[in-house]
Amino acid sequence: MADGPADPPITITKVHRLTPLDTQSSSVKRRSVITSFRRESASPSENSAKKDLASTRIDLVPKPTCSSTFHMNSSSSTSSKILPTLDHIDRHLRTSIKYKVPSARPTSVKGKRASILHRAQSMRMLQEKASFVSRRRQIFKRTRQCLLLLLATCIFAGIVLIFVFGSTTPPTPVCCGGNQPFIVTLLSGLKAMAMAIDPDGIVYIASAATNQIYYLNDTSLHVLAGTGDYGVVNGPVANAQFRYPCGIAVDSFGTVYVADRDSLEVRKITNGYVTTLLGEPSVGGIAPGGFDDNVDAVLINAPISVAVDVHGVVYVGYGTFIQGIKTDGSTFVLAGNMLRGYADGNGAGARFNGIRSIAVDALAEYLYVCDYYNHAIRRIEIATTHVATLLATGFYPTSGGGNVTSFTAPSGIFLVNSTLYVVDTFSNTVSSYDLNGTQLNQFGNGLYGNADGLNGSFGNPISLVVNASGAVYVGDVGNLLLRLVIY
């Protein structure tokens, strides 16, 4: 601020623009511009504005103009001045304020906005840098965790391998006292519904899926009979046809017997030819009225399994009874009748429900039966036709009506000397028993699968045979595999 009192501001109260001279009419009166001034007390802000205006030294006196431009009244020519217009004053004021009056704001709106945008960009760059560092740290942390987990897994696997393969005394199964079994897969794509083995160790397989009979020599599979077509044709083995073969047996002379279910026949393969041994059965002493109302005649009359003893007698297992075929071709009913049920007893007094597999011992004294729907293993004394049920403490006669065994779905049976092997389909296991009913061993972990190894698994096994060295061949029909159990 300047020292001393400030002059009051000049206020322009009335301004008339000069009218240009009309060159065509001289009668137009001359008009003068009258301007009056007055002084008023100014506020502090007005004083400041005046000071700023004074500093600009605005010259209020207009530049000389041509006398022809404006006309004045002769009476007032000596007392009035020609003053600048408001446009001149306004222009000077704007120029003075623009360059001389200090602004109350440090920066313009545009500059402030640019500053804000610059700061925002800087903050965003900092955030992106921090995010990148955070992500890099997180990746490093996860990588370290994965490496530690992998290291722990390797250590654990090493311990397991050392325990399994490095131990000199492998663990013994709880139920068993023998060696631990090892399961391997021999063949795939084979539905082995039934198997038999001859004295030379050749395995015969009835394949219901292809309607053919195979034989396995070591690990080579060959077709014994059947074209693969579904039909009933006898003759040379290369032209023969079967209809769902599901039971098979072989005698000491190499003659193969086949239970051909859908043709209701028992077929015989010998010397390169296929013939019919027995057609639809006729059960003596059982009238057609003896059928239960709920019995499926096809299941009763269809041959499901077959066995042959040392004397050449062929036994055929149907749904509810066992029929014998002597060497002279005559037939007889060993046990059971055409009534479904569960009862021990002699001959026709016994009842079965779904005979799936049969096996005869080496001396032709006993016939063992997988009674599928009764969940039991039955034993028939051939000389007396007496039927008993396998219990945990051995074979004892029962009054029937109750299931006293722990089998789920016994489907395959095989006898070697005094050891009985049983396939339990739905339990996915193969078990061995002595003739007193004590369990000796169990193969398979009980889970449905196809894993090989020490803790291998089966997928609904249904048939088996055992060779002279104790290796067990298993027809794993759920997986269409032929498996081998070594122990």
From TrEMBL:
Keyword line = Membrane, Transmembrane, Transmembrane helix
Q: Which InterPro entries match?
A: 6-blade_b-propeller_TolB-like
The segment annotated Disordered runs over: 21-55
Q: Which residues cross the membrane?
A: 146-166
State the protein's name.
SMP-30/Gluconolactonase/LRE-like region domain-containing protein
